[in-house]
Design a protein that fits this description.
Blueprint lengths: L1 H43 L1 E4 L7 E7 L4 E2 L4 E2 L3 H8 L1 H11 L2 H12 L9 E4 L3 H10 L4 E4 L6 E7 L4 E4 L4 E3 L2 E2 L24 E3 L4 E4 L9 H4 L2 E2 L3 E10 L1
Antiparallel strand pairs: 1-2, 2-14, 3-4, 5-7, 5-14, 7-12, 8-9, 8-11, 9-10, 12-13
Helix pairs in contact: 2-3, 3-4
């Protein structure tokens, strides 16, 4: 009986050992495949979307000049340059007051290379660090390649400079036209109060360089909650190649 128990223990140990090796090999293969897809997609200018904000799949990405995805971060945006990207006009004014020629040149470069975005485009952008932290802590966005280690957002542009935004109980109207699935939620799926950029009954017009984002789904974290975004934030325009 003791010999039989010893044999059973050896069999179990051997089985656990094989399962452990299989797990390790699987993890290594999964990491290698992920890394390989990352490298390949970067080389081909393809953005792989795994967020529910947009249909899952592959998109052709047109990145703004000087900005391109690396393996672990979006290159061309460091802490100093990211401030330029968010508000190059005011940063340029600050640079002028300080006599910072390098800062002035960077700010002008960002303005000159800002992507031309039109109503109906799908774009990729990074949130500022404070808003990104809020969204990440609540689970609205994942970790990713934007400054601070946050994922970029992919959204539809529904309004641009000069468009009128009106918020009603039913949802958002752009130039008088209702946008489907645009009703503003007071609480998220975990019953937490949502921020609200404009309450029902509000009306405003987008200023120069402002974009308003809405995705055609009720639970999208978009401009209904964080408001218009300056076009300087946009790092790429996306065109679907294969989505599901």
């Amino acid at each position: 009986m003791k010999k039989a128990n010893k044999t059973n223990n050896q069999v179990k140990k051997g089985l656990f050992s094989r399962l452990g090796k299989i797990f390790v090999i699987g993890a290594v293969l999964s990491f290698s495949l992920s890394l390989g897809l990352n490298v390949l997609s970067n080389q081909l200018g393809i953005y792989i979307n795994v967020s529910s904000s947009l249909p899952y799949g592959f998109y052709k990405a047109e990145y703004r000049k000087g900005v391109h995805p690396g393996l672990f971060s979006i290159e061309g945006i460091n802490d100093f340059d990211y401030k330029m990207l968010i508000d190059p006009v005011n940063t340029s004014l600050d640079a002028v007051s300080k006599g910072d020629e390098h800062g002035i040149a960077l700010a002008k470069d960002f303005i000159r290379n800002t992507l031309k975005v039109e109503r109906g485009d799908v774009v990729l952008f990074c949130l500022n660090s404070q808003l990104a932290r809020f969204a990440y802590d609540r689970g609205y966005i994942a970790s990713g390649k934007c400054p601070g280690g946050f994922a970029p957002l992919g959204k539809h542009v529904v309004a641009v400079n000069g468009d009128e935004i009106e918020v009603k109980e039913r949802g958002v109207f752009i130039n008088g036209q209702f946008i489907a699935f645009s009703k503003i939620a007071e609480f998220d799926g975990q019953n937490r109060v949502m921020p609200m950029y404009a309450e029902p009954g509000s009306k405003f017009t987008l200023e120069a360089g402002e974009l308003y984002f809405l995705n055609p789904k009720a639970d999208s974290f978009d401009s209904r909650y964080f408001g218009p975004i300056k076009s300087f934030y946009v790092i790429a325009k996306l065109k679907p190649l294969w989505t599901f």
